[in-house]
Amino acid sequence: MARLYSDPLCPVACALDVIGEKWTLLILRDLTRNPSRRFQDLLDSLHGCAPNTLSARLSSLEEAGLIERRQYEQHPPRMEYVLTDKGREVRPVLKALKAWGQTLQAQKA
Amino acid sequence: MARLYSDPLCPVACALDVIGEKWTLLILRDLTRNPSRRFQDLLDSLHGCAPNTLSARLSSLEEAGLIERRQYEQHPPRMEYVLTDKGREVRPVLKALKAWGQTLQAQKA
Predict the structure, then answer these.
(1) PANTHER family from the xrefs (chains A, B) (predicted)?
(2) In sequence order, which residues have a C-beta less than 8 Å from that of residue B98 and are 6 or more positions away?
């Protein structure tokens, strides 16, 4: 996986190397909310994300061990995506983002 | 400020609209660690960040009210950047990223 930042000593940069690219945290948000998601489910949920971008982000997440692909249909073969235990370790980041985002939304209301 | 995601109802997307662009969270990391930072300090710390990108990110953060510019020298006029109270509200996100990043680093060790 290409590194976003060349700062291997900094834990924040190391985390963002894995989940800092556009769309990645929203994919993890969806897989946190739903036990499993199909490609089209994710595409429908991620307004404006191109299919090839979604594929690239899913491959990176799979390579990083944060998600897994499971076959849910044989003919034709269809896949769904689920969080791994390692992927679930990201939930505190999503929780903190959600809390701060709610503060922003309240300030705009 | 151009929106990263068109998902105004989702607090995670709203948060990432403000702090989701590349380099932004690392700038906030630096300003959280140090009470104030000059442009060159930030540039030196952010390996690989171009000056014009740093300027753009600092303007966006200023526009969002997360940081402020303060003049620390009159002749010639020189500026430094500091977190605002609103900027300090992002610390739980940085804290969660740091904790998860440390987990990643430990797994690699």
Answers:
(1) HTH-TYPE TRANSCRIPTIONAL REGULATOR YODB, TRANSCRIPTIONAL REGULATOR, MARR FAMILY
(2) A11, A12, A15
Pairing assessment for the beta strands B67-73 and A78-83 based on DSSP bridges: unpaired
A1 in any annotated domain: no
Which position has the higher pLDDT, A35 or A104?
A104
Residue A25: which of B16, B94, B105 has the nearest Cβ?
B16
- Domain membership flag for residue B2: no
Taking the CA of residue A60 and the nearest CA in chain B, the distance in Å comes to 15
Determine how many CB atoms are found less than 10 A away from the CB of residue B84: 15
What is the C-alpha separation between B60 and B64, in angstroms, rounded? Answer: 6
Question: What range does the domain containing B100 cover?
Answer: 11-108
ipTM of the complex: 0.91
In tens, the pLDDT along B10-58 reads 999 999 999 999 999 999 999 999 988 999 999 999 999 999 999 999 9
Count of structural domains within chain B: 1
Is A79 domain-assigned?
Answer: yes
User: Are A7 and B104 in contact (CB < 8 Å)?
Assistant: no
B interface with A, Cβ–Cβ < 8 A, is 4-7, 10-16, 18, 20, 22, 25-26, 29, 47-48, 89-90, 92-105
Domain presence at residue A51: yes
